[in-house]
């Protein structure tokens, strides 16, 4: 999985459409092997991003859990701590 795609489920506040779009964009970039499509492939690239973002939104809206929502700031702090150890 691409390192830039972050978990989006069960956070308070919930994932925004922008976060979901960014994750879809990263996925399409990874699958296509390019960060910027050619003009010829730009429309297909954008359609794929939009379709994956819509599927991801549908998935996140339909998932259920008995766990309380996680705090975004706390999760970000843990990620920064792991990165500091990893890249120190």
Explain the layout of strands and helices:
Blueprint: E1 11-12, H1 17-32, H2 42-62, E2 70-71, H3 72-87
Parallel strand pairs: 1-2
Please describe what this structure looks like.
This protein is mainly alpha-helical and 88 residues long. It has one domain. The chain has 3 helices and 2 strands; from the N terminus they run βααβα. The chain has helices at residues 17-32, 42-62, 72-87, and strands at residues 11-12, 70-71. The protein has a two-stranded parallel sheet with strand order 1-2. Helix 1 packs across helix 2. The two termini are 23 Å apart.
- What is the number of domains? 1
| Helix-strand makeup class | mainly alpha
Order of SSEs: EHHEH
Q: What distance separates the N and C termini?
A: 23 Å
Largest sheet: 2 strands, parallel
Lateral strand order in the biggest sheet = 1-2
Query: How much is the average pLDDT?
Result: 91
- Overall radius of gyration: 15 Å
Shape: flat
**Secondary structure: helix percent:** 55-70%
β-strand percent reads under 5%
Number of helices: 3
TL;DR of this structure?
The chain has 88 residues and is mostly helical. The protein is built from three helices and two strands, in the order βααβα.
List keywords for this structure.
mainly alpha; two-stranded parallel sheet; 3 helices; 2 strands; 60% helix; 5% strand; DUF2277 domain-containing protein
